[in-house]
Design goal:
Elements (H helix, E strand, L loop, with lengths): L5 H25 L5 H22 L11 H24 L3 H8 L2 H12 L6 H18 L8 H26 L4 H22 L6 H27 L2 H4 L5 H13 L7 H29 L1
Length: about 300
Amino acid sequence: MKNLSNKTKGIICIILSALSFSGMSSFINLSGDLPTAQKVFFRNLVALFFASAMLIKNREPFKPVKGTFPFHLLRASAGLLGVFGNFYATTHMAHTADAAMLNKMSPFFTLVFSAIFLKERVKPVQGLAIVGALVGAGLVIKPDFKNEELIPAIAGLLGGMCAGAAYTCVRHMGNKGENGRFTVFFFSAFSIVVTAPFLIFDYHPMTSRQLIYLLLVGLCAAGGQFGITAAYTYAPSREISIYDYSNIIFTAIEGYLFLGHQVPDMLSLVGYFVIIIMAVWMFVYNNKEDKLKRT
């Protein structure tokens, strides 16, 4: 990759991250009917190992930058709720691509939370994109009380919202100079501490295959986290963020090939289209705004 531009490296990393997260979704489903807390525990156990190894390798301290500890707690709490919502939706919705798309609402929620808490102005175009994305999410959720997937779908949307809140905290801590590897370490350690009691008091015996699947969930999650961190190290979000939506394509393909020929219904497909169009619109708009600032 030495001869590639930083933007190209960023695109490759974010696509590999999207592929890793789609694998995580597939392995969550393949692990079977285990408690969500048990799945979350193993997901973060592997991530904690990798984050610790990275900190040790780079000889970086296992402590936060001064003044960021409360935001680490907030980020970890919101992030953990986001993971619970995403895992619950992935396990209980008929199509993993639906759950993945609802989780991809997080960038729009990040805009909202950044406006509320970081006082970053939301422009009219961004506001319209948020509304449009919510309409698309509604098509995926199909809010009908007769819909058996309503609760998992709402959990998936709330998971995306919590992820947006977590990314807002990450953005704030990044502005204060916090190390991204420590942020991953803190979140993983926090998640293990919180989910360990559930594992102790409500442990469900697993087959060796289920254990392997859960370890693969953690491996894919770690790959996804470090991949996206590397991507945004090489290039800014405005240049590469749109490629993260390749996750939906990977998830849909894996759902069809490995999870019983899953094919989303027409309303969900329209919802995907609307959300992705809103994301593309924001991507193009942000790049135009950036060019105007540089001229």
